[in-house]
Amino acid sequence: MGACESNRHLVHDGVMMLRVLALSLTLFTGFVQATVLQRPISLDTGTGELFGSLLLPKSDTPVPVVLIISGSGPTDRDGNNPDGGRNDSLKRLAWVLAKHNIASVRYDKRGVAASLAATPDERNLSVEAYVADAEAWGRKLKADPRFGPLILLGHSEGALIASLAAPSLDAAAVISMSGSARPIDQVLRQQLSNRLPPPLLLRSNELLDSLKAGHVDDNVPPQLQVIFRPSVQPYLISLFRQDPAAAFAQLKMPALIIQGSNDIQVGVGDARLLKEAKPDAELAVIEGMNHVMRIVPNDVKRQLASYKDPQLPLAAELSTRILGFIDGLRTR
């Protein structure tokens, strides 16, 4: 065989090897994707049907399952809000879990997205209904032989719902992410005190006083309608009755508190108050992380932009903390 022919064979063999390698990578990628079952899942509550997404890693034995509960307002199962933008925070978190052999169900709350028909009028929403729904989802998952320990993970207002639902479910653990420790009327007072001119601030405080006392108040200035519109006031009344720190203190199961240092909605102080309420809980303050679980500088424009950027990666330490906590449940 001449040198030229030999070189041709080497080139040909090299090209063939690259094709085989490319095919192998394609098959491997497909295999990884196929090991996670992604399916819609629904729940008939008796007062409306709720819709969600299931991620289930392929396994011959039951796997831990995390019930992911989204935050306030019309935030959907993926962590997106029509008023605040698409960031896919909860969806991306669910995939992090799935790739580490942990199942998850995330769902649209009643009155939101695909579950809108369950309670189309927000006047009929309440914290108690949200808690009952979380409990019903939890019972469904606990009855499924594919699942092992049930962990409730709540983000923002969802952290309160998780804390209230966990005891009746005898959940294996609770994860509070960006959860307030103070009653939410106190949080609103603080937030609004820095943003409203004196006349509107006075009126907002009057509205908060009225709602805290359990009374609706239809006299809402146009500038405050987004927060205090009459149709949402019954829900706010039910919310203001709750004491998040007290609910968290009642938990008997292991708990993890996660808080970002650059969260412009909930502060590290709330996380520390939750830790005081339940001293045996783990506390993870993630430096630079914001409310939508990204590492973002403490700059308002960049913070708001991150709420609308699903391509930003989740904070790496977030995944490490959650996976380490769930893995550690086996040795408790």
Layout: helices, strands, pairs:
Layout: H1 3-34, E1 36-44, E2 49-57, E3 63-69, H2 89-98, E4 103-107, H3 127-142, E5 147-155, H4 157-169, E6 173-177, H5 184-193, H6 198-212, H7 225-228, H8 233-240, H9 244-249, E7 255-260, H10 268-277, E8 282-286, H11 300-306, H12 316-328
Parallel strand pairs: 3-4, 3-5, 5-6, 6-7, 7-8
Antiparallel strand pairs: 1-2, 2-4
Q: What this model shows, in words?
A:
This protein is α/β, with parallel strands linked by helices and 332 residues long. Among the domains are: 1-34; 38-180 and 289-331, Alpha/Beta hydrolase fold, catalytic domain (Rossmann fold, 3-Layer(aba) Sandwich). Helix content is 43%, strand content 17%. It has 12 helices and 8 strands. An 8-stranded mixed sheet has the order 1-2-4-3-5-6-7-8, sandwiched between helices.
